Amino acid sequence: MCRHLAVVGPPASIGSAVVDPSHSLFRQAWQPRRQQHGTVNADGFGVGWYAPGDPRPARYRRTGPMWADPSFADLARVVHTGALLAAVRDATVPSADGEAAAAPFADGPWLFSHNGAVPGYPESVLPLASQVPAEELLRMEARCDAAFLWALLAHRLRRGEPVEQTLADTVKAAADAAPGARLNLLLTDGARIAATTWGDTLWYLTGPAGRTAVASEPYDDDPHWTEVPDHTLLIADRTDVTLSPLKEPWQ
What we know:
- It holds the Pfam family GATase_4.
- One of its GO terms (biological process) is ergothioneine biosynthetic process.
- Keywords: Glutamine amidotransferase, Hydrolase, Transferase.
- A seven-stranded antiparallel sheet has the order 3-2-4-1-10-9-11. A six-stranded antiparallel sheet has the order 5-6-7-8-12-13, with helices on one face.
- The protein is α+β, with helices and mostly antiparallel strands.
- The protein is globular and about 45 Å long.
- The protein has helices spanning 15-18, 25-28, 70-78, 134-138, 145-158, 163-177, and strands spanning 2-13, 45-49, 58-62, 80-89, 105-107, 110-117, 182-188, 193-197, 203-207, 211-215, 226-227, 232-236, 241-245.
């Protein structure tokens, strides 16, 4: 459905993670190696990154394929950051939302992406809409399933609820409401990365320079990439990665 990537570590160009590697997200837009659903991720893309001293990330999003945007190639070459989240999109269903439906979604210090699909959306998740105030639903950037999942998450994050609990509860609620949903969620605040595996692939790589990457699939052939089991919650910073099962209720 999509491919996404988050990185935290020493400042480096956006392109060093998103464009330059041999199997980068840029290439995954047309030739993913491990994508289980869909074939080409050409329905939009986006990248969000953090500038020194500013907790709110900047974003660059477009409706077309990443490979067709020369402006992004320039941006990725010259902009340096210590944390980013990027995604290429294979739309679940056609929509008129344009770049508003392209991840990353943002709120305050947070960046978010969803790799997957919610069967029967929006009817299947109508019971969950009551968890979000009406004014927040009306402010949703797009009408797609990913934007709705982000509305559920962002509402709880703004209230200061723990990231681990929020992600675990959201995945369980969406999976209960829409059986068969694929719910690989990816979230960062610029210091930590949080992610879930629920129906699709996820890998992580920690490097000797204090750099951690979490991605739908490896962006190069480094043998130290580690696959995350399905139904798992991942929490990572620059040096450490913690995995917890999502099959049991979160404690």
